[in-house]
Structure formats: C-alpha cells, structure tokens
Amino acid sequence: MQWLFDHDGRRYLDLVGGVVTVSVGHCHPKVTAALHEQIDTLWHTTNVYRHPKIYDYVEKLVSKFSGDLKVVYLVNSGSEANDLAMILAKAYTGNSDIISLQRSYHGYSSTIMGLNATQSYRMPIPVPSGMHHAMVPDPFRGIWGGCRDSISQVPNSCNCPGDCITSDKYVHQLSELLDNSVPSGRLAAFFAESIQGVNGVVQFPKGYIKKAYELIKKHGGLYVADEVQTGFGRTGDSFWGFQNHGVQPDIVTLAKGIGNGFPLAAVVTTKEIAAAHNKSYFNTFGGNPMAATVGKAVLEVIEEEELQQNCKETGKYFLEQLMELQKIHPVIGDVRGKGLMIGLDLVEPGTKQALNMADSSVIQEMVKDLGVLLAYGGKLYNVVTIKPPMCINKNDVDYAISVLDQVFDFYKKNK
Asked: For labelling, which of 4, 16, 20, 241 has a CA lying 20 to 30 Å from the CA of 200?
C-alpha cells in the first residue's frame, strides 16, 4: 500500500508513489487479484480481435467524463498520449502551432521534447517547428505573484475572493505570444497541466486557465488538459484537475495513476475531433487485456475506498501540518498544493533563492534514513514533491511531519 521495504526488510513511508504512479497502493489486493486472474486467462491478442475487457474498461472510464468526451485511445505512456494528442489537434484544426507553458513537462520523444519547456529535458537536437512556450503563471516565483486554489498561499500574497487580479497579467503575456509569434487564427492547441508536476507542484493564479482557455478558442486552438499527474481524484475536490478550473477540455491525456504502476495511458476526446484522424491508428499493446483489467480495477478501488475524499481530507491535514512547520523552519519558502499533490519549496533562509542542490540532497537522504521517501522537482530541484499513494492516512502524515521536523531542525542548527 503506502509502504516500501528494502533488502533488509526495513519499512519506508512512500511519499513518491513511483512519481505519482502508484495511485491506490503498492500491490493493492484487488488490483493484484484482478491481474492474476487475467494473466491466467488471456495476456494479449491485439485490438484487431476484440476482447470484452477493453469495452468494460472504456465504458467505466468515460463515465467519469462529462459532455462529449466519449472517445478513448488506449496507449502505454504519457509520452505516447501527448504525442497522439498533438496529432489529433493538428488533424482537426488543420493548424500546426502549439503552445505550452514554460517549465512544463509532457513526456519524452523527439516530438514531445519541443513541447517541454524545461532544459533538463531538452537535448540539443532539432524539434518540430511551431512550438511556443508562454510565461508560466507562478504565484511564488512569477513576476506578478498571485493567489491560488489552495488553503496555503504565498506569504504576503493577494487574497482575491474570485479570480486572482494577476491572472489577467499572465494571460496578457499569452495574448502577446499569440499576436506576435503564431500565424493569425492558426493555432492548433494549448497544452497545460492542471497543476505543473515536474516543475514542483506549481498552481496557477485563480482564473488563469479559464481565461487562457477563452483566449485560445478565439485563436482557433484546442485546449489539451494533461491530467497525467492530477487525474483520478488526487486533487480531492474533483476527479479531474481541469474541473477545478471550470473548463471543459477538447482533449485529455491520462497516464501514471491510471494503472497503479502497470503500463497504461489514454487519450480522451470527442467524436468530432477523433473523426479528423482519418487514417488507421494502431497500438500494439494499447488496451491489451491485462492493462484494461488493471485500469478497471483501479477505478473500482478509487470508488469503493473513497480515495478522492481521502485525498481531500488527508491532503488538507497534510498541508495544515506543513504550514505549521513553515512557521518555525525558514528553509521552507512556500507550501502549496491541493489534495495529495503537494510541494514544499526549499529556499536559502530569508530569501526566495532556491536551496542549493547539495543541501537539498542532504535533507532528502536524512529523511530517507529516518524512514520516509521524498522526491524533488522544480527547475533547480529544490521543491520537495509529495504525491503518495492515495491511501495514506493522518497517522502517516503525523509520522512524516515528525521526520521532517527533526531533519529541518538539524539543518537549522548545523547550517
């Protein structure tokens, strides 16, 4: 479930979740049993020959979406999903230019590399033309700051009752990009994570995505919601992260937690958009009987164990405890997140300067030695990213907080 064991049998609380991939728990008994039963029945055919598992799964998956999002392509990874989403957007609009946000990460392929705006994932090789990157609206490090959809705000930030006043400024930057760098009315798509994951759990100022969506539509583009990290109830209030922004995407990409660690991903879109893909699409392993069986079991566990509600309640409790730590440990510059998708921005005390990598690494190792596994994100790898299996409880949170408190206290005294 939420625990991992090393070769000596020592137990660790896993707050990494295989990088937001183990959604319902390591070796969850229901998911494991379903996979074993399927392995003993049928591993693989190809989708040329129909099998019932793929239909059972897709019907259950699309029931989680509203509106016209009823067509599903099953693939094997987030990279494949976002690559296919780009093809669909270009085919439907007849346009080639695509916009993503700075410091975004959408996968790794020769095409997707152009969508990424993170140097860590950009090789010095040509990428497709027509890729543009808009300013990331970051309430902590962005030039206009802002307030976000979280119980935790940047110290001394605005506290707007509705849309954040800074959202218009960031959207204006997006408008400038569209007006100056994209052929008029020729945008194919705007890709955005509902909360930036690899960039260190960056939430946008309230209202940004909705206003960006409206602007993109005026320029002829589709909105692609990358739900690879934020989907399946992780943010607590909604099953999908985009629902927190009050928008309906044209295309949604899914991966990671969709299969609890089993290779599975998906693209969900409308019949109208799918019809524009007028050539054959074939994916050897996409939607194989094992993957479809696991995917269906994961959805059932999320429902039966009320994991979305657990994300909401336990995530709120986790954020509250981290906010208390922030008051006494100046190395914590920002606490942010929603549900069980949380970021802890570590800084040089008294500044917004990212904590140096050497000290960040020492903190990570000390926390690990005390029995808790953490990961880092952000441009400078100084943001502790907490994205555990969605089954963790308040006792686990208390344990993690006590460990973090010990380590930060040691750091403060020995810095």
From this structure: 4
